[in-house]
Amino acid sequence: MDRRDFIQQLPKAELHLHIEGSLEPAMMFDLARRNGVELPYADVAEVRTAYEFAGLQDFLDLYYAGMGVLRTASDFFALADACFRRVGADNVTHLECFVDPQAHLGRGVRFEDLMQGLDAAVRQAAGRGLEVSLILCFLRHLSEREAFGALEDAAPYQGNFIGVGLDSSELGHPPGKFRNVFAAARDLGFRLTAHAGEEGPAEYVWEALDVLGVERIDHGNRALEDDALVARLRRDQVPLTLCPLSNLKLRVVPDLRAHPLKRMLDLGLLATVNSDDPAYFGGYVNDNYVRAAAALDLGEAELAALAANSFKAAFRAGDDSAG
Ligand code: HPA
Ligand code: ZN
Question: What positions carry a catalytic annotation?
């Protein structure tokens, strides 16, 4: 069986995908027209050309600008429905999907409209055999007080969220800045995860674990710089949600052959493969598996282990035997 077919037939969980990062350029243009929003691009080709990033912040500037076309419940439904159909086509049976409410509320979108659109798409996905849980991400470039505001706004919709996460500009915004709001979220019953060690140092991964008490680390690439941290991640089998194509596009790695995925597997870490922002980074989860496998020469046993890891790492037990 060729490698792509082998990857396709593996049931998988996707644990690191930002719904706003699935906004494809064609939909960006449709929604801009519908909502009377000006885009700084003439056409889809020009958007694609703009997607050359010097690093995380460079990407985030376009990511926040792009999502400005999302205004109504039906916009959020269209976004999520297209995303979930695409995710399901890769034989993903379980998706834990990040949402950035603060990025929408801050520009006048109502929480109610955001949730109405997303929830309708989640229900339709379930009917097609894709189980979706949402994770509310706090924007780390904003204050902890603002994160508390988002948590309070989300209270009427708590049943729609399985957990909270932490994303946006990492450097200069260590996890410890959000210790109180993570403690409050945990008391409310949310599961906890955080982006750490993408551009930030290994110290941020320690903080996410020991100060925030997260169960999972999103990215975690730079953990390999610290042997004691590697020992901790191995001992506790802390899941790492790696995103190879994201790391390539955001210059976290110079080349996929330098990606830490294989080293992490060899070290006994619970590594998983995910897509992060597929519309911006050039691929959904199977593309991430295929490109990483080619660059790192991963065999079928390693690919099957990665798919099995994705279910072990999930907050909600998925069914990896359904096919
Ligand atoms: N890192 C941090 N914040 C993000 C990312 C990411 O890769 N994608 C969307 N928000
Ligand atoms: Zn991410």
Answer: 198
Q: Which two tokens stand for residue 29?
A: 């243009």
Q: If DSSP codes are grouped into helix, strand and coil, which group holds residue 94?
A: strand
Mean pLDDT of 186-200: 98
Tell me how many domains the chain contains.
Answer: 1
In degrees rounded to 5, what are phi and psi of residue 224? -65, -15
Tell me how far the alpha carbon of residue 321 lies from the centroid of ligand 1, in angstroms: 31
Residues 16, 278: contact at Cβ < 8 Å? no
- Longest CA span, the chain: 53
Residue 317 within any structural domain of the chain: no
Q: Would 209 be classed as within a structural domain? A: yes
Mean pLDDT, all residues of the chain: 97
Angle, vertex CA 131, rays to CA 154 and CA 119, nearest 5: 35
Residues 6+ apart with CB under 8 A from 146: 102, 139
111 in any annotated domain: yes
Instruction: Give the domain CATH number at 14.
Output: 3.20.20.140
Give the range of the structural domain holding residue 183, as residue numbers without chain letter. 3-312
* 3-class DSSP state of 98: strand
The number of the ligand nearest the C-alpha atom of 274 reads: 2
16, two tokens: 């690191």
Query: Quick one: pLDDT at residue 1?
Result: 87
* Total-model pTM: 0.97
Top mutation candidate among 20, 63, 97, 168 for ligand 1, by most atoms within 8 Å of CB:
168
pLDDT band at 262 (very low <50, low <70, confident <90, very high): very high
Name the residue of 97, 195, 243, 246 whose CB sits within 8 Å of the most ligand 1 atoms, as the mutation to test its pocket.
Answer: 195
Handedness of CA 111, 115, 116, 121 (dihedral sign): positive
